[in-house]
């Protein structure tokens, strides 16, 4: 599933193609949304936001298209009415004179009035978006200690979109490694120094991934490894997808296990288990 950085980059592409341009044609695959085609035709897109893994396309007539890519959704930006060759099912198409923004395969699409986001089943519960909202490390440090979150294991907590929007499987492993936190611990098991590092890692790695097309490793190291002829999967991350390979910090073998039914990676020396209470 695409994580927050991937959705934000997709939103940038959609916004570049459709913002401030008159919609000459729009179509929805789902019958219950087709009444909005006439309402939205002739309007202009004013902004494209994200809320974690959801995208919000805002129009000047106070309507908002909500979409969530889930596992298989994918946006294509093409010249107007130039459709890609794909076996995917077209779910939403927005056309102006020059460009078409086409969403394939996604099944979670809705149309809202501006202001109705607070009542939406997903949007009403999702946590802060680190790429689209002003969220400081101090804000996250305080959030980590909230009674709703502090007793939960980091491995499940970081995947909970109500905690922080947009963090998914690769970011989970990378954040815990950079923060030096054991994946078997909880926020309440951590020192204040670790919590501050975790807060900074959440923000830094979300932005690093967004700005570097999914790379969470140190950019200078990634560039050096790339020059050495390493493939993308070999230089992209600190620990994720690196089972059995040496830790980039101390050479310890990276371990893979499953948490919340998904694979997780860590360095057992850089991320020591907390001492039992």
Give an overview of the whole structure.
The protein has helices at residues 4-18, 36-40, 137-144, 154-157, 169-179, 192-211, 219-227, 232-235, and strands at residues 25-28, 45-51, 54-59, 63-68, 74-79, 90-95, 99-104, 108-113, 255-259, 262-266. With 277 residues, it is of the alpha+beta class. It folds into two domains: 4-119, N-terminal domain of MutM-like DNA repair proteins (Alpha-Beta Barrel); 137-266, Helicase, Ruva Protein, domain 3 (Orthogonal Bundle). The strands form three sheets. The protein has a four-stranded antiparallel sheet with strand order 1-6-7-5. Strands 2-3-4-8 form a four-stranded antiparallel sheet, covered by helices on one side. A hairpin with a 3-residue loop joins strand 6 and strand 7. Helix 1 packs parallel to helix 6 (192-211) and helix 3 (137-144) packs across helix 6. It is globular, with a radius of gyration of 21 Å. The model has no long low-confidence stretch (mean pLDDT 95).
